[in-house]
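Input chain follows. Return structure tokens only.
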Amino acid sequence: MKKHMTRFGIFGVILVITILVLPISGNAVDFSADMINKSPMGTINGKVFFKEGNFRQEMDMGGGNQVTIFRKDKGLVWILMPGQMMYMEMDGDGAQNMGPVDPDELGKMGKMEYLGKEKVNDYSCSKYRFTHNDPSLGTGTYWISEKLNFPVKMEMDGPSGQMVTEYRNISEKTVPGSLFDIPSGYQKMSMPMMPGMEQQ
């Protein structure tokens, strides 16, 4: 079994790094939703599952499926490649800022400007404009659902262009905890070296 990253895998890692910087609150209720992510690289559809601060994201990429699990309770990020029955592990609290942050913590990372109330996908949201302390990282707009305590829409403007992520068809039902575990039989592989990251 090959131990190197394919083009599909490298693209997936880059997208994961981008998406997982979005704010996630440990106080949100259990839910699942359809995900639509639009960026200069194209449109990617997927599914997301949230439970007790832990987050699972499934994306259809290049004809294959890639699963990313952020375990907030363990401070880890797992990238699963079902087709190869392999996974990679990263530090969710490392210097590369891989892990999601609570919306309340965004104020520590930059300037938060309240823009009022707005309804998105039938959810009443508080809308915020976020400007990072490091201007090179760009700005973002978040629509945070008051009921879910979770952003149901995000627009990020950065060096690579604009990325819009939106969650639709949200279902507020209990999510099985098994979705946030590595399936049996999966083999761990080394994380490829990328700028600003240490070898795992």
